[in-house]
Amino acid sequence: MSKEEFKEIRRSIGRTQEDLASDLGVRTRTISRYENGEVPIPAAIAAAVKALSK
């Protein structure tokens, strides 16, 4: 999953970075790092975000 796709899905489901971090059990800074491309998005996180969008 690209950083752009990750961010677009988050926005489309109406979640803030803080909300999504809570949903996924990670820190807000981690969500920011995913969206900025600072760290790769793990497959498990990508799958969870896709599941939330359905």
Verbal overview:
Helix 2 packs across helix 3. It contains 4 helices and no strands. The mean pLDDT is 97. It has a single domain, classed as 434 Repressor (Amino-terminal Domain) (Orthogonal Bundle), CATH 1.10.260. It is globular, with a radius of gyration of 10 Å. The relative contact order is 0.23. It has 54 residues and is mostly helical.
Task: List the keywords.
Cro/C1-type_HTH, 434 Repressor (Amino-terminal Domain), 54 residues, plasmid, Lambda_DNA-bd_dom_sf, DNA binding, 4 helices
Largest sheet: none
Q: How many separate structural domains? A: 1
- Average pLDDT works out at 97
Shape: globular
Q: In CATH terms, what is the architecture? A: Orthogonal Bundle
Q: Note the gap between the termini.
A: 16 Å
CATH class: Mainly Alpha
Can you describe this structure in just a few lines?
This protein has four helices and no strands.
